[in-house]
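User: I'm writing a short report section on ligand binding and want a predicted complex to refer to. Could you take this sequence and zinc ion and write out the structure as tokens? A short remark afterwards would be nice.
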Amino acid sequence: MLGHLIVPVADLVLGASCAGCGAPALGLCRSCGEAAAPEPAIRWPSPTPDALRRPPVLPASGGVNADVLRRVLIAWKEEGVTALTGVLSHHVAAAVLMLDSGRPLSLVPVPTSARSRRARGADLVDDLARAARGHLVRLGVDVVVTQALAYRRTTEDQAGLGAAARAANLAGAFRVRAGRLPAGRDVVVIDDILTTGATVAEAVRVLSEEGRRPIGAAVAGATGRLSETVR
Ligand SMILES: [Zn+2]
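Assistant: Sure. The structure tokens for the complex follow:
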């Protein structure tokens, strides 16, 4: 009974509605929460960027970026519903567990451009990685988050670019920050959405050049052309 009162009041005050279906709710409603629950798997972008090939850097995603999960990601990334970091961090944590090497891990978020940080008021991927780490630590995983990557130069917005244009846009865009990567930890690149794999591949390329080839990349949702094997 009280719940019936609280949600409409919250809706008036905060405009709170479910990001999946629009019904009044704080965060996600129950049915959308179930529909978008993590279904982690290794999903390769097709074609697979060279940087992910030998030795393979496993692309683990917490779910397929479709239906409710897609709407959640749009609300989180484009519409300022940053509270959904809590929901999506479960997807990233589930993806990291797909990669579990049994060794201590260092999660390296892909860097956020100054433009994105201004537009969103936060470094969403860093927030996502830190929230995912919280879940993993509670499960007994020895894991840290390391801001080891930064932008070397500005890039165009990736949205609307095809695979080749995305790769060209990002080539040489990142650098490894000296002294940021602790020794003795397997590196996992963290991003929000895997589309062509261009962003993750560029992060893998620069980390590999520094002798710290990641074991995998973990994202909340994968989209685009996906394959169960390298293509
Ligand atoms: Zn809903």
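A remark for your report: DSSP finds eight helices and ten strands in the chain. The two ends are 53 Å apart (CA to CA).
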